[in-house]
Every structure is written in structure tokens, then in C-alpha cells.
Amino acid sequence: MTKIKLYIVLLFLGIGLPQVYCQNYKFKTSGVSVLEKNEKGKWAKWSDLQLVNVVVSLDTNKNRIVIYSEIIQLFEIISYQPIEENDTDVVYSFTCKDNNGDDCTLSIITRKNQDNRKQLYINYGNRIIVYNIFNL
């Protein structure tokens, strides 16, 4: 009888533990803006904020971030960067490759002084795309 109880406990641990470490986070966007470098290598101004309403999925099980825009943007997470936190922000960053194989860094930033407003930054080095996001 004791062996049966042990097997049942091990079965539940085997089923439950992988779900603890593999999580899927869903966000919704409310706006997007773009910043690009000009011909001289200097940053231009942010574009006007465009209202957008798309879903963003961070799937740590599949190591990917998907933005379900008109053209689906898929980012394969190559590495998880250490969490950075200061008085104003909490930053979760990921080194990624996009659909085209281009390297980029995605960062989910929580603005502490702005009612914990969240933003998703996609940084390609010569251009940055920012989405205002909120949890679903």
C-alpha cells in the first residue's frame, strides 16, 4: 500500500512540476511607436503613437514571443537576460531572433512611477519599436 501511495505522489509531481516552470503570459497592446536612426546615425524622433489592439504572447515553454499583428511577428528567445530593477523601472530582457533571422533584444519594462504601466521594446540597434501593453 505504501508503494502505491509513493507512485501516486511521484506521478503528481511528474505532472505538476513542469507546469510550474513553463508559463505562458498574455498581453494586449494599446499603441505602437517607432524610433529610427537617420542617415547620419543619429536618432530621429519617435513616430506618432498609433492605436493598435493585438495580442502578445510570451511562452517560456517554447522560448518564444509572438505578436499577433496583421503580419505575425515571431521572436525565438535565444537567452534570458538578468532582471534589472531601479527606482523607476523593472526590466525583463530577452536576446532574440525574429522571423527573418535578425538579432534583436526584446524588453518588457514596468514603469513603477506610472502606475506600473508596461511597455514592450523591440530593439534592432538601428530602430526601436515600442508597444504599450497590459496584462490579459
Q: What does this molecule look like?
A:
The chain is mostly beta strands. The chain has a single domain, classed as Porin, CATH 2.40.160. The protein is built from one helix and ten strands, in the order αββββββββββ. The protein has an eight-stranded antiparallel barrel. The radius of gyration is 19 Å and the shape is globular. The termini are far apart.
Shape: globular
Whole-angstrom Rg: 19 Å
Tell me the span between the first and last alpha carbons: 45 Å
Helicity range of the residues? 10-25%
Roughly what fraction of the amino acids lie in strands? over 45%
- Topology pattern, helix = H, strand = E: HEEEEEEEEEE
Uncertain segments: 3-20
Query: What is the name of the CATH topology?
Result: Porin
What is the correct CATH architecture?
Beta Barrel
Provide mean pLDDT, rounded: 87
**What's the β-strand tally?**
10
Instruction: Tell me the strand order in the biggest sheet.
Output: 1-3-4-5-7-8-9-10
CATH class: Mainly Beta
Write the layout of secondary structure elements.
Elements lengths: L1 H20 L2 E13 L13 E2 L3 E5 L4 E4 L5 E8 L3 E2 L3 E9 L5 E9 L5 E7 L3 E9 L1
Antiparallel strand pairs: 1-2, 1-3, 1-10, 3-4, 4-5, 5-7, 6-7, 7-8, 8-9, 9-10
Summarize this structure as a short list of keywords or feature phrases.
eight-stranded antiparallel β-barrel; 10 strands; 136 residues; disordered N terminus
